[in-house]
Amino acid sequence: MSSISSSSQRPPGISLLWWVLLPNVGVLVVAFLLLALTPITIHAPIKADQLALLFAGLVVMVALNVVLLRRVLSPLLALANVMSSVDPDRPGRRLVGVNPRSAEGRALAEAFNSMLDRLERARRDAARRALRAQEGERLRVARELHDEIGQTLTAVMIQAERAANDDAAQAAVALGRVAEAVHASLDELRRIARELRPEALDDLGLVNALIALCSRVNAQGGPTVIRDLPSDLPPMSRETELVLYRVAQESLTNALRHAAADTAIVSLKSDAEAIALTVTDDGRGMPGQLPPATAGIAGMRERALLVGGHLSIESRPNEGTRVVLTLPVEGNGV
Question: Which region, left, alpha or beta, applies to residue 247 given φ > 0 means left and ψ of -120 to 50 means alpha?
């Protein structure tokens, strides 16, 4: 781990209050001694030479105070300059040996190093999760292609070879079965492609894509999905639409596979400030403590962070689950 240093000594942790107070006290002491030990007298009304003398003394005290305070605060400025030189793309660098003089400066340096530790751990964890998710998705697609499409095409090839050696009537029947198998393979390919990238989202927009998603969940024998979707939405980027779609997809998938829910509600609301997606179900909920580190939940949280959103999940055993994704409306400065 590399370090960044601006001094080789580590001073005692004196509070910044005392570092600022001492120069001011010193200036006041000097002014007091000058008034006490020098034959300076002030008359009322004040004379011009006395006013000039007081003004000169004031200027000298202000200048002395500025010089002393700049010397006291300069380590904090140096610390800020060193902190700004840290590059997040070059991990391992820390503030070591920095001389901030004050206890507050040392606490700031330690907090900055702690923040760098947390950021690097979070980045490593996110990279691991992303890699695991990527490899897991590739493995899933490979298995589906091999187990579903591969076996179907193998059966089609065998049937076609047999049909080539049959008479016309039997060949016609065999070719009909071949056509049905090819059609089923095409449907399976479309399903896999739709899971990788929802084509309805690009072709029809977010609302229609969510309607198609809810219809597919209903067709799979899962919970009855009730839609509460608006007819119009504020302008959104493709990334924002994809995040909303994926969170809805993951939430409905959990309701279908794990929650044993009878009903699920997909609601999408928007106003001038934010867009809110809410997916609720009446299933068995999550057992005990909510597991935030699961792959699905972690993926939804990371997607929300990518577009500046906030994801909240409420779940209790046998009381269902409620997922709320709130995203700021783009272009409103939020």
Answer: alpha
Provide DSSP, 120-162.
Answer: HHHHHHHHHHHHHHHHHHHHHHHHHIIIIIIHHHHHHHHHHHH
User: 330 and 301 in contact (C-beta within 8 Å)?
Assistant: no
Q: At residue 187, what are phi and psi to the nearest 5 degrees?
A: -60, -40
pLDDT greater than 50 at residue 11:
no
Choose among 158, 4, 160, 14: nearest CA to 83: 4
Q: What are the strands of the beta sheet with 224-228, ordered from one edge?
A: 224-228, 263-270, 274-281, 321-328, 310-315
In 13-84, which ranges are E strands?
none
Token pair for residue 181?
């198998």
pLDDT tens figures, 70-124: 777 777 777 777 777 777 667 777 766 666 666 777 777 778 888 888 888 887 7
CA 103 and chain centroid, separation: 32
pTM of the predicted structure, to 2 decimals: 0.54
d(CA 160, CA 172): 11
Residue 296: count of CB within 10 angstroms of its CB: 14
What backbone torsions phi and psi does residue 293 show, to the nearest 5 degrees?
A: -90, 0
**pLDDT of res. 9:** 41
